[in-house]
Automatic annotation (TrEMBL), chain A:
This is Uncharacterized conserved protein. Signal peptide: none annotated. Keywords: DNA damage. It comes from the Bacteria. It comes from Marinobacter daqiaonensis. One of its GO terms (biological process) is DNA repair. Residues 206-230 are annotated as: Disordered.
From TrEMBL, chain B:
Residues 23-147 form the UmuC domain. GO terms for biological process: DNA repair. It comes from the Bacteria. It comes from Marinobacter daqiaonensis. Keywords: DNA damage. This is Protein ImuB. Coiled coil: none annotated. SUPFAM superfamilies: DNA/RNA polymerases (SSF56672). Belongs to the DNA polymerase type-Y family.
Amino acid sequence: MSDLLNSLLREARLWQGHRQHAISHSPEPTGFPMLDGQLGGLGWPRGALSECLLEAAGIGELQLVLPLVRRLTHTQRTVFWVNPPFIPYAPALAREGVNLDQLVVIETESPQDTLWTLENCLRSPVTGLVMAWPERLASRDIRRLQLAAEAGQSTCILFRHRHEANQSSPAALRLELVPGSDLSIQVNILKRRGGWPGQNCILPMETRAGQAGGDPSARILQGPWPDPRS
Amino acid sequence: MLWLYLHFHHLLLDHIARSREDQAPLAIISEPSRRVLQACPRAMHQGIRPGIPLKTALNLAPELVMVQADDEQQKRILEQQAQWLYRYMDRITLYPPDGLLAEAGSLRRLYGGLPQLREQLTRALEERCLNTTITTGSTPMAARLLARAGMPIFTGEQQLLKEHLEQLPLEHAGFEPATVQRLVRLGLSRLGEVAALPAAELARRLAPETLVHLQKVQGQRPDPQSCWQPPRHFHQQADFGLAVEKTQGLLFALRRILVELENDLLHRQQDTDSLVLILRHHQQAPTRMRIRTTGPEHRAEAFLNLLRIRLEQQPLVAPVESLELTVTRFLERHTPADGDLLGDGVDQEEAWHTLVSRLQARLGEQTIRHLAPAADHRPERAWNAREIRDRSRSTREADVEHLPLRPLWLMRQPQPLRVVPDTWFAGPERISGGWWDGEKVLRDYYIARLPEGQLAWVYRDCHDGWFVHGWFG
């Protein structure tokens, strides 16, 4: 087979019916064994775009990427936050063990600047991860970012609104994040490279409320509200 | 002792021609007489000669770019030349507006002979497109007169120099015009003939100053020279003659100056991280820009990229008549500590500086920030953002164990809580502080899950109002 075909197979860009190939790309594990299993050992793809589609912030979406951020910042790779919707809170990040020296927050004014910034960050060899909350992205723009991520071999995660889920996108990995009944988060895989989509898994995220399960109301001393148990 | 003199034929013209991207003919005009003083070769080709009236010149070449003669400006340009010449020679004396003197005896030894010295100088001058006559002389004055007379003699032999000096026509000998006239009336035409006259008679019949001048030329009277000191800062100016309207025209001139800066930094063995660019407009306040890199830099290409981004972002407010580039901050040159020997790998530090400098140039310095925790009880003050300047400093290891539980997202402004949370997880955590600086805070914080599934950090203030202050993202 030609080199081109070989490389396509190796990077799992060509899907081969029944044969599921192990990917030779060094993957970025998500840090959640259950999710890694569902993704076929791929984790967050390097040199490609990923999308997280969610309704509103605060459902545990940062917890999902936190293991990656923690790992990258400690291996001296820079993590960029482009136009975050709220302030990434430094004391909380420090508590989670993130190396804040490798964290850079960028605010842009116009969509052109955003795109330019993302492209430049993705192409740079210092970049480990770019997280972006873009307002609106055309399919053409996503393709440009995809090429930039490929050139720089960096990971890019776009956080977009859930209603973009039925739009097609050139991103290599698309995850839909839905809050679970308790503190957990349900991850639906809408698209992934080298395999069927459609898997889902539920990841427990209790630690973000500062506890490991148990009766939640036991922690509350006495609130001003009517007794939740009554 | 041997002296060396550089006479620039038309310094102002050469200077402007180098800054201009187009090939328009140039002429220097004198404002009071409205006549052409100097013309560049292209203008000469179109028939413009020094001395012709301005109107005639404009008829000959309608696209002629005219520059007013300005001695102050020319003096500044001369100093710019001295700056780079200082790499080739020390002990420079400026002779404004168009000449430069240097002591050549020591240079001869340094370069291993006069021909080598001349070759080096000629090459450097040609690189900068400067029309120059270089001569030597046994006295400063003799070298200057020979150069200005256009006698390109370059030798160390005293006898030959003396012969040339004797052949110098009187009108080039640097006497007062009235003196020259009297001498010509006496039937003298060469400097040698005047020198042959008895000194006492010369002083008595003409003027003592004439004798002093002659003796200085011959070396019989001391003629001390004051040495020029190079400035500590780098400063270069480009003048355009006709105002430039497009950014492209500026970049053309900037590229040349930046290459000059790169050479200058190379000789200083230093780097810099900030440039100041001043664009001067006609009858308008000049535009001042400060271009900063995050790390020490010396490459012209890197500076040019940043300037290009900045100029694209910031349109010109008016056509630019001249630009100045100044560097006052010099840094030790950085040596990569752990770079590989063959230089194959990408220098991470350098790549980082390049990226951040690019982003800062386009987006502004305030928009790219690092985050850090701050020591304050109030959540909105327990963090700060700072500009990225240097990454080399290391922050202290935070005591992770003792940090309280905080949300990953903090709202810029607390928002009123509009829905009733369906589950309460932790609380209350009372935060009370700020009485010392007038921004008093008295709140009870709870962690609660909203009906849409978001985990919020809510608080109740002392007026029983409920607010969301962050999200546990």
